[in-house]
Amino acid sequence: MAERLVVIGGDAGGMTAAAMARRLRPDLDVVALERGAHMSYSACGIPYLVAGDIDDLDDLVVVTPDRFRAEYNIDARTRHEVTALDLDARQVEVRDHEHDRTYKLGFDTLLVATGARPVRPDLPGIDGDTIHGVQTLDDAERLLADADRRPPRAVTVVGGGYIGLEMAEAFVRRGAAVTLVEAAPEVMRTLDTDMAAMVHKAMEAFGIDVRTGVAVEGFEPGRVLTAAGPVEADLVVLGLGVQPNSELAGDAGVALGARGAISVNRRQQTSADGVWAAGDCCDSFHLVSQRNVHVALGTVANKQGRVAGINIGGGYATFPGVVGTAVTKVCSTEVARTGLTETEAARDGFAYEAVTIESTTRAGYFPGTKPITVKVVAERDTGRLLGAQIVGEEGAAKRIDVFATALTARLTVFDMISLDLSYAPPFSSVWDPVLVAARKAVEAVERGR
Ligand SMILES: Cc1cc2nc3c(=O)[nH]c(=O)nc-3n(C[C@H](O)[C@H](O)[C@H](O)COP(=O)(O)OP(=O)(O)OC[C@H]3O[C@@H](n4cnc5c(N)ncnc54)[C@H](O)[C@@H]3O)c2cc1C
Protein backbone atom coordinates (compact mmCIF):
# COMPACT_ATOMS: atom_id res chain seq x y z
CA MET A 1 0.00 0.00 0.00
CA ALA A 2 1.24 3.53 -0.78
CA GLU A 3 2.58 5.63 2.06
CA ARG A 4 -0.08 8.18 3.10
CA LEU A 5 0.24 11.85 3.95
CA VAL A 6 -2.81 13.31 5.66
CA VAL A 7 -3.13 17.10 5.67
CA ILE A 8 -5.52 18.74 8.16
CA GLY A 9 -6.61 22.17 6.92
CA GLY A 10 -6.97 23.07 3.26
CA ASP A 11 -5.67 26.60 2.91
CA ALA A 12 -2.30 28.35 2.58
CA GLY A 13 -0.16 26.24 4.93
CA GLY A 14 -1.82 22.91 4.17
CA MET A 15 -2.22 23.05 0.42
CA THR A 16 1.18 24.62 -0.27
CA ALA A 17 2.74 21.73 1.64
CA ALA A 18 0.47 19.15 0.00
CA ALA A 19 1.28 20.38 -3.52
CA MET A 20 5.02 20.50 -2.81
CA ALA A 21 5.10 17.02 -1.25
CA ARG A 22 3.09 15.67 -4.17
CA ARG A 23 5.54 17.17 -6.67
CA LEU A 24 8.54 15.61 -4.93
CA ARG A 25 6.89 12.26 -4.12
CA PRO A 26 4.54 11.20 -6.95
CA ASP A 27 4.13 7.82 -5.21
CA LEU A 28 2.65 9.37 -2.03
CA ASP A 29 -1.07 8.98 -1.29
CA VAL A 30 -2.03 12.57 -0.30
CA VAL A 31 -5.37 13.19 1.44
CA ALA A 32 -6.29 16.78 2.39
CA LEU A 33 -9.15 17.28 4.86
CA GLU A 34 -10.89 20.66 5.11
CA ARG A 35 -13.87 21.28 7.37
CA GLY A 36 -15.14 24.22 5.33
CA ALA A 37 -16.57 24.35 1.84
CA HIS A 38 -13.51 25.99 0.25
CA MET A 39 -9.86 25.19 -0.15
CA SER A 40 -6.82 27.24 -1.13
CA TYR A 41 -8.38 30.69 -0.83
CA SER A 42 -7.18 34.20 -0.06
CA ALA A 43 -8.65 35.31 3.27
CA CYS A 44 -6.59 38.46 2.75
CA GLY A 45 -9.03 39.46 0.01
CA ILE A 46 -12.13 39.27 2.26
CA PRO A 47 -12.20 42.99 3.22
CA TYR A 48 -12.03 43.93 -0.47
CA LEU A 49 -14.85 41.50 -1.26
CA VAL A 50 -16.98 43.10 1.47
CA ALA A 51 -16.10 46.58 0.19
CA GLY A 52 -17.18 45.57 -3.34
CA ASP A 53 -13.74 45.85 -5.03
CA ILE A 54 -14.01 42.15 -5.83
CA ASP A 55 -17.36 41.00 -7.22
CA ASP A 56 -17.35 37.30 -6.64
CA LEU A 57 -16.27 35.22 -3.63
CA ASP A 58 -15.01 32.55 -6.06
CA ASP A 59 -12.40 35.04 -7.31
CA LEU A 60 -10.63 34.54 -3.98
CA VAL A 61 -10.23 30.81 -4.60
CA VAL A 62 -6.79 30.00 -5.98
CA VAL A 63 -7.21 26.27 -6.68
CA THR A 64 -10.53 24.44 -6.41
CA PRO A 65 -10.85 20.97 -4.80
CA ASP A 66 -11.73 19.57 -8.27
CA ARG A 67 -8.47 20.92 -9.65
CA PHE A 68 -6.50 19.51 -6.71
CA ARG A 69 -8.00 16.11 -7.50
CA ALA A 70 -7.61 16.27 -11.28
CA GLU A 71 -4.31 18.11 -11.73
CA TYR A 72 -2.41 17.45 -8.51
CA ASN A 73 -3.68 13.95 -7.76
CA ILE A 74 -4.50 15.09 -4.23
CA ASP A 75 -7.56 13.52 -2.60
CA ALA A 76 -9.09 16.87 -1.54
CA ARG A 77 -12.10 16.46 0.76
CA THR A 78 -14.12 19.52 1.77
CA ARG A 79 -16.63 19.53 4.63
CA HIS A 80 -14.49 16.83 6.25
CA GLU A 81 -13.50 17.87 9.76
CA VAL A 82 -10.85 16.11 11.80
CA THR A 83 -12.32 15.68 15.27
CA ALA A 84 -9.57 13.66 16.97
CA LEU A 85 -5.99 12.63 16.47
CA ASP A 86 -4.46 9.36 17.75
CA LEU A 87 -0.69 9.43 17.44
CA ASP A 88 -0.20 5.85 18.74
CA ALA A 89 -2.71 4.32 16.32
CA ARG A 90 -1.53 6.83 13.66
CA GLN A 91 -5.02 7.73 12.61
CA VAL A 92 -7.38 10.69 12.54
CA GLU A 93 -11.11 10.65 13.23
CA VAL A 94 -13.01 12.50 10.53
CA ARG A 95 -16.53 13.91 10.56
CA ASP A 96 -17.89 13.96 7.01
CA HIS A 97 -20.48 16.76 7.23
CA GLU A 98 -21.58 16.14 3.64
CA HIS A 99 -22.78 12.58 4.31
CA ASP A 100 -23.32 12.88 8.06
CA ARG A 101 -20.91 10.06 8.99
CA THR A 102 -17.72 9.60 10.97
CA TYR A 103 -14.74 7.49 9.85
CA LYS A 104 -11.12 6.83 10.78
CA LEU A 105 -8.25 7.40 8.41
CA GLY A 106 -4.71 6.10 8.92
CA PHE A 107 -1.60 8.09 8.11
CA ASP A 108 2.13 7.58 7.86
CA THR A 109 2.89 11.29 7.87
CA LEU A 110 0.66 14.07 9.16
CA LEU A 111 0.68 17.78 8.44
CA VAL A 112 -1.35 19.97 10.79
CA ALA A 113 -2.34 23.23 9.09
CA THR A 114 -5.50 24.10 11.00
CA GLY A 115 -4.89 27.86 10.99
CA ALA A 116 -6.24 30.22 13.62
CA ARG A 117 -9.62 31.62 14.61
CA PRO A 118 -10.78 35.08 15.64
CA VAL A 119 -10.71 35.69 19.39
CA ARG A 120 -14.29 35.67 20.77
CA PRO A 121 -14.29 37.24 24.23
CA ASP A 122 -16.40 35.46 26.82
CA LEU A 123 -18.95 38.26 27.17
CA PRO A 124 -22.75 38.20 27.48
CA GLY A 125 -24.43 37.93 24.10
CA ILE A 126 -21.26 36.95 22.18
CA ASP A 127 -23.12 34.14 20.38
CA GLY A 128 -25.60 36.51 18.75
CA ASP A 129 -26.12 35.78 15.07
CA THR A 130 -25.10 39.28 13.96
CA ILE A 131 -21.65 38.98 15.59
CA HIS A 132 -19.07 37.87 13.05
CA GLY A 133 -15.47 36.76 13.28
CA VAL A 134 -13.75 36.71 9.91
CA GLN A 135 -11.09 34.11 9.14
CA THR A 136 -12.20 31.66 6.46
CA LEU A 137 -14.11 32.05 3.22
CA ASP A 138 -17.06 30.33 4.92
CA ASP A 139 -17.00 33.13 7.53
CA ALA A 140 -17.02 35.69 4.69
CA GLU A 141 -19.96 33.90 3.04
CA ARG A 142 -21.98 34.05 6.30
CA LEU A 143 -21.08 37.70 6.86
CA LEU A 144 -22.08 38.71 3.34
CA ALA A 145 -25.32 36.70 3.51
CA ASP A 146 -26.19 38.54 6.74
CA ALA A 147 -25.25 41.95 5.29
CA ASP A 148 -27.24 41.27 2.10
CA ARG A 149 -30.31 39.97 3.94
CA ARG A 150 -30.45 42.93 6.35
CA PRO A 151 -28.20 45.69 4.94
CA PRO A 152 -26.73 47.16 8.14
CA ARG A 153 -27.13 50.87 8.79
CA ALA A 154 -24.77 50.77 11.74
CA VAL A 155 -21.75 48.47 12.02
CA THR A 156 -19.49 48.20 15.06
CA VAL A 157 -16.01 46.76 14.77
CA VAL A 158 -14.59 45.53 18.07
CA GLY A 159 -10.79 45.76 18.10
CA GLY A 160 -8.39 48.01 16.25
CA GLY A 161 -5.95 45.51 14.72
CA TYR A 162 -5.36 45.45 10.98
CA ILE A 163 -8.33 43.16 10.22
CA GLY A 164 -10.61 45.44 12.26
CA LEU A 165 -9.35 48.48 10.36
CA GLU A 166 -9.76 46.85 6.95
CA MET A 167 -13.27 45.66 7.81
CA ALA A 168 -14.22 49.11 9.18
CA GLU A 169 -13.20 50.72 5.88
CA ALA A 170 -15.05 48.01 3.91
CA PHE A 171 -18.34 48.74 5.68
CA VAL A 172 -17.99 52.51 5.29
CA ARG A 173 -17.62 51.86 1.59
CA ARG A 174 -20.81 49.75 1.68
CA GLY A 175 -22.60 52.79 3.05
CA ALA A 176 -22.82 51.91 6.76
CA ALA A 177 -22.12 54.19 9.71
CA VAL A 178 -19.11 52.49 11.32
CA THR A 179 -17.89 52.71 14.91
CA LEU A 180 -14.64 51.07 15.97
CA VAL A 181 -14.26 50.33 19.67
CA GLU A 182 -10.80 49.58 21.04
CA ALA A 183 -9.96 48.99 24.71
CA ALA A 184 -6.31 50.09 24.36
CA PRO A 185 -5.41 53.79 24.34
CA GLU A 186 -4.72 53.66 20.60
CA VAL A 187 -5.56 51.55 17.50
CA MET A 188 -2.94 49.29 15.87
CA ARG A 189 -1.06 47.91 18.86
CA THR A 190 1.55 46.60 16.42
CA LEU A 191 2.76 50.21 15.97
CA ASP A 192 4.12 52.68 18.50
CA THR A 193 1.37 55.02 19.67
CA ASP A 194 2.86 58.07 17.91
CA MET A 195 2.63 56.26 14.56
CA ALA A 196 -0.73 54.68 15.38
CA ALA A 197 -2.17 58.12 16.19
CA MET A 198 -1.73 59.04 12.51
CA VAL A 199 -3.74 55.99 11.49
CA HIS A 200 -6.43 56.92 14.01
CA LYS A 201 -6.67 60.41 12.49
CA ALA A 202 -6.89 59.01 8.95
CA MET A 203 -9.76 56.72 9.99
CA GLU A 204 -11.69 59.61 11.51
CA ALA A 205 -11.12 61.67 8.38
CA PHE A 206 -12.69 58.79 6.42
CA GLY A 207 -15.79 58.95 8.63
CA ILE A 208 -15.11 56.08 11.04
CA ASP A 209 -16.14 56.86 14.63
CA VAL A 210 -13.05 55.62 16.52
CA ARG A 211 -13.47 55.13 20.27
CA THR A 212 -10.22 54.16 21.97
CA GLY A 213 -9.80 53.34 25.65
CA VAL A 214 -13.32 51.87 25.66
CA ALA A 215 -13.85 48.29 26.82
CA VAL A 216 -16.72 46.21 25.40
CA GLU A 217 -18.87 44.61 28.12
CA GLY A 218 -21.44 42.66 26.15
CA PHE A 219 -23.74 42.43 23.16
CA GLU A 220 -27.50 42.86 22.79
CA PRO A 221 -29.59 42.77 19.62
CA GLY A 222 -28.91 46.07 17.83
CA ARG A 223 -26.19 47.31 20.16
CA VAL A 224 -22.80 46.73 21.71
CA LEU A 225 -22.54 47.47 25.43
CA THR A 226 -19.40 49.32 26.41
CA ALA A 227 -17.99 50.89 29.57
CA ALA A 228 -18.79 54.25 27.97
CA GLY A 229 -22.40 53.37 27.12
CA PRO A 230 -24.15 51.44 24.32
CA VAL A 231 -23.10 51.71 20.67
CA GLU A 232 -25.64 51.06 17.92
CA ALA A 233 -24.83 47.97 15.84
CA ASP A 234 -26.98 46.06 13.34
CA LEU A 235 -23.88 44.01 12.62
CA VAL A 236 -20.68 43.44 14.64
CA VAL A 237 -17.26 42.40 13.35
CA LEU A 238 -14.70 41.03 15.80
CA GLY A 239 -11.19 42.32 15.17
CA LEU A 240 -9.54 41.26 18.43
CA GLY A 241 -6.81 39.16 16.87
CA VAL A 242 -6.63 35.42 16.45
CA GLN A 243 -5.73 32.36 18.48
CA PRO A 244 -4.13 29.26 16.97
CA ASN A 245 -6.28 26.19 16.26
CA SER A 246 -3.83 23.98 18.13
CA GLU A 247 -6.17 22.03 20.44
CA LEU A 248 -6.37 18.94 18.19
CA ALA A 249 -2.57 18.58 18.17
CA GLY A 250 -2.19 19.65 21.82
CA ASP A 251 -4.78 17.13 23.04
CA ALA A 252 -2.91 14.39 21.17
CA GLY A 253 0.30 15.25 23.06
CA VAL A 254 2.08 17.45 20.52
CA ALA A 255 4.11 20.16 22.32
CA LEU A 256 2.74 23.70 22.19
CA GLY A 257 4.85 26.86 22.14
CA ALA A 258 4.38 30.61 21.83
CA ARG A 259 0.83 31.74 22.71
CA GLY A 260 -0.38 28.14 22.64
CA ALA A 261 0.58 27.61 18.99
CA ILE A 262 2.12 24.30 17.92
CA SER A 263 5.85 24.34 18.58
CA VAL A 264 7.94 23.61 15.47
CA ASN A 265 11.62 23.51 14.65
CA ARG A 266 13.08 25.21 11.58
CA ARG A 267 12.11 22.27 9.36
CA GLN A 268 8.47 22.62 10.57
CA GLN A 269 8.70 19.37 12.56
CA THR A 270 6.61 19.14 15.70
CA SER A 271 7.61 17.23 18.85
CA ALA A 272 5.82 14.11 17.51
CA ASP A 273 7.49 11.74 15.10
CA GLY A 274 6.22 12.14 11.52
CA VAL A 275 3.97 15.08 12.46
CA TRP A 276 4.62 18.46 10.82
CA ALA A 277 2.85 21.80 11.14
CA ALA A 278 2.66 24.98 9.07
CA GLY A 279 0.85 28.32 9.08
CA ASP A 280 -1.26 30.15 11.65
CA CYS A 281 -1.55 27.07 13.91
CA CYS A 282 2.17 27.01 14.72
CA ASP A 283 4.81 29.35 16.08
CA SER A 284 7.84 30.97 14.43
CA PHE A 285 11.23 32.19 15.54
CA HIS A 286 11.69 35.99 15.61
CA LEU A 287 15.11 36.79 14.17
CA VAL A 288 15.44 40.14 15.97
CA SER A 289 14.02 39.38 19.43
CA GLN A 290 15.32 35.77 19.28
CA ARG A 291 12.04 34.61 20.84
CA ASN A 292 9.41 32.20 19.57
CA VAL A 293 6.34 34.16 18.51
CA HIS A 294 2.94 33.50 16.99
CA VAL A 295 2.57 35.46 13.75
CA ALA A 296 -0.65 34.76 11.84
CA LEU A 297 0.09 35.97 8.33
CA GLY A 298 -0.30 34.51 4.85
CA THR A 299 3.30 35.45 4.03
CA VAL A 300 4.52 33.14 6.80
CA ALA A 301 1.96 30.37 6.22
CA ASN A 302 2.93 29.96 2.56
CA LYS A 303 6.65 29.85 3.32
CA GLN A 304 6.23 27.40 6.19
CA GLY A 305 3.97 25.23 4.01
CA ARG A 306 6.60 25.14 1.27
CA VAL A 307 9.32 24.13 3.74
CA ALA A 308 7.14 21.43 5.34
CA GLY A 309 6.22 20.09 1.89
CA ILE A 310 9.86 19.86 0.78
CA ASN A 311 10.82 18.03 3.97
CA ILE A 312 7.84 15.68 3.80
CA GLY A 313 8.74 15.03 0.16
CA GLY A 314 12.20 13.82 1.17
CA GLY A 315 14.15 17.06 0.59
CA TYR A 316 15.74 19.39 3.09
CA ALA A 317 14.52 22.93 3.75
CA THR A 318 14.36 25.29 6.69
CA PHE A 319 12.31 28.35 7.57
CA PRO A 320 14.79 30.51 9.47
CA GLY A 321 12.17 32.78 11.01
CA VAL A 322 10.32 36.06 10.77
CA VAL A 323 11.24 39.68 11.36
CA GLY A 324 7.61 40.71 11.96
CA THR A 325 6.87 42.44 8.67
CA ALA A 326 3.30 43.48 7.94
CA VAL A 327 1.56 45.96 5.70
CA THR A 328 -2.00 47.21 5.43
CA LYS A 329 -4.03 50.08 4.10
CA VAL A 330 -6.86 51.95 5.72
CA CYS A 331 -8.63 54.39 3.42
CA SER A 332 -5.81 56.18 1.57
CA THR A 333 -3.33 55.69 4.39
CA GLU A 334 -0.71 52.98 4.02
CA VAL A 335 0.72 51.41 7.17
CA ALA A 336 3.72 49.11 7.50
CA ARG A 337 6.00 47.74 10.15
CA THR A 338 8.93 45.37 10.53
CA GLY A 339 11.24 44.25 13.33
CA LEU A 340 10.66 45.74 16.77
CA THR A 341 8.75 48.88 17.63
CA GLU A 342 10.22 51.21 20.24
CA THR A 343 7.86 49.64 22.81
CA GLU A 344 8.95 46.12 21.88
CA ALA A 345 12.66 47.05 21.89
CA ALA A 346 12.26 48.41 25.43
CA ARG A 347 10.31 45.31 26.50
CA ASP A 348 13.05 43.05 25.13
CA GLY A 349 15.76 44.92 27.01
CA PHE A 350 17.53 46.60 24.08
CA ALA A 351 19.28 49.95 24.60
CA TYR A 352 18.08 51.81 21.52
CA GLU A 353 17.63 55.09 19.71
CA ALA A 354 14.37 55.90 17.93
CA VAL A 355 14.03 58.59 15.27
CA THR A 356 11.18 59.76 13.07
CA ILE A 357 11.38 61.66 9.78
CA GLU A 358 8.80 63.18 7.46
CA SER A 359 9.34 63.19 3.73
CA THR A 360 7.52 62.65 0.45
CA THR A 361 6.85 59.57 -1.64
CA ARG A 362 8.13 61.23 -4.86
CA ALA A 363 10.43 64.20 -5.50
CA GLY A 364 8.90 67.12 -3.59
CA TYR A 365 8.10 69.01 -6.82
CA PHE A 366 6.68 65.99 -8.68
CA PRO A 367 2.90 65.85 -9.32
CA GLY A 368 1.13 63.39 -7.06
CA THR A 369 3.78 63.36 -4.37
CA LYS A 370 2.37 62.28 -1.00
CA PRO A 371 3.52 62.50 2.63
CA ILE A 372 5.40 59.66 4.29
CA THR A 373 6.53 59.31 7.91
CA VAL A 374 9.23 56.79 8.76
CA LYS A 375 10.25 55.75 12.27
CA VAL A 376 13.46 53.76 12.79
CA VAL A 377 14.65 51.97 15.91
CA ALA A 378 18.38 51.14 16.12
CA GLU A 379 20.55 49.57 18.79
CA ARG A 380 22.44 52.28 20.70
CA ASP A 381 25.90 50.71 20.94
CA THR A 382 26.16 49.03 17.55
CA GLY A 383 23.74 50.92 15.33
CA ARG A 384 22.15 47.61 14.35
CA LEU A 385 18.72 48.17 12.83
CA LEU A 386 16.03 46.84 15.18
CA GLY A 387 12.86 47.90 13.42
CA ALA A 388 10.97 50.39 11.28
CA GLN A 389 7.43 51.69 10.88
CA ILE A 390 5.91 53.65 8.01
CA VAL A 391 2.68 55.61 7.77
CA GLY A 392 1.98 57.51 4.56
CA GLU A 393 -0.03 57.67 1.41
CA GLU A 394 0.21 55.97 -1.97
CA GLY A 395 3.74 54.67 -2.60
CA ALA A 396 4.80 54.73 1.07
CA ALA A 397 4.29 51.29 2.55
CA LYS A 398 6.26 48.91 0.38
CA ARG A 399 9.45 50.75 1.35
CA ILE A 400 9.22 48.61 4.49
CA ASP A 401 10.65 45.72 2.46
CA VAL A 402 14.04 47.47 2.35
CA PHE A 403 14.02 47.57 6.14
CA ALA A 404 12.85 43.93 6.33
CA THR A 405 15.75 42.88 4.09
CA ALA A 406 18.19 44.93 6.16
CA LEU A 407 16.93 43.27 9.36
CA THR A 408 17.35 39.81 7.87
CA ALA A 409 20.90 40.70 6.84
CA ARG A 410 21.52 42.21 10.31
CA LEU A 411 22.59 45.52 8.76
CA THR A 412 23.38 48.56 10.89
CA VAL A 413 21.99 51.99 10.09
CA PHE A 414 25.60 52.84 9.12
CA ASP A 415 25.39 50.13 6.42
CA MET A 416 22.00 51.38 5.33
CA ILE A 417 23.00 54.96 4.50
CA SER A 418 25.22 53.68 1.68
CA LEU A 419 22.62 51.36 0.13
CA ASP A 420 22.46 51.91 -3.62
CA LEU A 421 18.70 52.49 -3.73
CA SER A 422 17.02 53.58 -6.96
CA TYR A 423 15.97 57.15 -7.70
CA ALA A 424 14.02 59.10 -10.32
CA PRO A 425 11.61 61.98 -9.49
CA PRO A 426 8.37 59.96 -10.04
CA PHE A 427 9.53 57.42 -7.43
CA SER A 428 11.34 59.31 -4.66
CA SER A 429 13.62 62.19 -3.75
CA VAL A 430 17.28 61.65 -4.50
CA TRP A 431 17.54 60.70 -0.82
CA ASP A 432 14.79 58.13 -0.47
CA PRO A 433 12.86 58.42 2.83
CA VAL A 434 14.50 55.10 3.84
CA LEU A 435 17.93 56.73 3.54
CA VAL A 436 16.81 59.95 5.24
CA ALA A 437 15.54 57.92 8.21
CA ALA A 438 18.72 55.81 8.34
CA ARG A 439 20.85 59.00 8.30
CA LYS A 440 18.90 60.48 11.18
CA ALA A 441 19.29 57.19 13.09
CA VAL A 442 23.06 57.29 12.47
CA GLU A 443 23.19 60.78 13.98
CA ALA A 444 21.21 59.62 17.02
CA VAL A 445 23.43 56.56 17.55
CA GLU A 446 26.59 58.70 17.25
CA ARG A 447 25.19 61.23 19.73
CA GLY A 448 24.21 58.45 22.15
CA ARG A 449 27.73 56.92 22.25
C1 LIG B 1 -9.62 39.36 6.73
C2 LIG B 1 -8.22 38.87 6.68
C3 LIG B 1 -7.25 39.60 6.01
C4 LIG B 1 -5.94 39.14 5.96
N1 LIG B 1 -5.00 39.87 5.30
C5 LIG B 1 -3.72 39.44 5.23
C6 LIG B 1 -2.74 40.16 4.51
O1 LIG B 1 -3.04 41.21 3.91
N2 LIG B 1 -1.47 39.69 4.48
C7 LIG B 1 -1.11 38.52 5.11
O2 LIG B 1 0.06 38.12 5.05
N3 LIG B 1 -2.04 37.80 5.80
C8 LIG B 1 -3.31 38.23 5.87
N4 LIG B 1 -4.25 37.48 6.54
C9 LIG B 1 -3.84 36.26 7.25
C10 LIG B 1 -3.82 35.05 6.31
O3 LIG B 1 -5.04 34.94 5.65
C11 LIG B 1 -3.54 33.83 7.13
O4 LIG B 1 -2.32 34.00 7.80
C12 LIG B 1 -3.48 32.57 6.30
O5 LIG B 1 -4.70 32.30 5.70
C13 LIG B 1 -3.07 31.38 7.16
O6 LIG B 1 -3.13 30.22 6.42
P1 LIG B 1 -3.29 28.83 7.16
O7 LIG B 1 -3.36 27.79 6.09
O8 LIG B 1 -2.26 28.68 8.19
O9 LIG B 1 -4.65 28.95 7.96
P2 LIG B 1 -6.16 29.24 7.44
O10 LIG B 1 -6.17 30.10 6.25
O11 LIG B 1 -6.91 29.67 8.65
O12 LIG B 1 -6.61 27.80 7.02
C14 LIG B 1 -6.78 26.77 7.94
C15 LIG B 1 -7.87 25.87 7.42
O13 LIG B 1 -7.97 24.74 8.28
C16 LIG B 1 -9.33 24.39 8.38
N5 LIG B 1 -9.46 23.60 9.61
C17 LIG B 1 -9.28 24.02 10.89
N6 LIG B 1 -9.49 23.00 11.75
C18 LIG B 1 -9.79 21.92 11.00
C19 LIG B 1 -10.10 20.57 11.32
N7 LIG B 1 -10.16 20.13 12.58
N8 LIG B 1 -10.37 19.71 10.30
C20 LIG B 1 -10.34 20.15 9.00
N9 LIG B 1 -10.06 21.43 8.66
C21 LIG B 1 -9.79 22.28 9.65
C22 LIG B 1 -10.06 25.72 8.42
O14 LIG B 1 -11.41 25.58 8.02
C23 LIG B 1 -9.24 26.55 7.43
O15 LIG B 1 -9.79 26.52 6.12
C24 LIG B 1 -5.59 37.91 6.58
C25 LIG B 1 -6.57 37.17 7.25
C26 LIG B 1 -7.86 37.63 7.30
C27 LIG B 1 -8.89 36.80 8.02
Spell out the key features of this protein:
single chain, five-stranded parallel β-sheet, 25 strands, 449 residues, alpha/beta
Q: What would you note in describing this structure?
A:
- The structure is a single chain.
- By secondary structure, this protein is of the alpha/beta class.
- The chain has 12 helices and 25 strands.
- It has helices spanning 12-24, 46-51, 65-72, 137-149, 162-173, 193-205, 247-251, 298-312, 342-347, 400-408, 413-416, 433-448; strands at residues 4-8, 29-34, 75-78, 80-86, 91-96, 101-106, 109-112, 116-118, 131-133, 154-158, 177-182, 209-212, 216-220, 223-226, 229-232, 235-238, 242-244, 275-277, 284-285, 292-293, 326-330, 333-339, 352-360, 371-379, 385-392.
- The strands form 7 sheets. It has a 5-stranded parallel β-sheet with strand order 3-2-1-7-18. It has a 5-stranded parallel β-sheet with strand order 9-16-10-11-12, with helices on one face.
- The chain is globular.
- The mean pLDDT is 97.
- The protein binds flavin-adenine dinucleotide.
- The site of flavin-adenine dinucleotide has 34 residues, from helix 1, strand 2, helix 2, strand 4 and helix 8.
Quote the average pLDDT. 97
- Given helix and strand content, the structural type is alpha/beta
Helix content: 25-40%
Summed up, the helix count is 12
Which spans of ≥5 residues are poorly predicted at pLDDT below 50?
A: none
Q: How big a fraction of the residues is strand?
A: 25-35%
Q: Kindly provide the radius of gyration, computed on alpha-carbon positions and rounded to a whole number of angstroms.
A: 23 Å
Bound molecules: flavin-adenine dinucleotide
Shape descriptor reads globular
Largest sheet: 5 strands, parallel
Q: Count all strands and give the number.
A: 25
Adjacency order of strands in the biggest sheet: 3-2-1-7-18
Termini gap:
67 Å
